[in-house]
Amino acid sequence: MCQDSRHQRFILRLANLQTILIAHNIDLAPRIKKLKVGDIVEFYGEYEWNKKGGVVHWTHKDTKNKHVHGWLKSGRNKYN
Hey, where are the domains in the chain? Predict the structure, then answer.
């Protein structure tokens, strides 16, 4: 993950009770506005395991086409 870019970070609890950190680059894709506890967020991105549950990043279009394009969905809105 690039340290120079800005990210919206939030933790999701999955159906199996595992938690994962979502790191969504808001320099490349819009921020999810009014995100609150209990909201359902669908996602597609690159998962990296860690002892705390892991992190998902690349939840946006890759401008260099080196990664599959990712996205977030919240409510009726898609963020990519």
Answer: 7-79
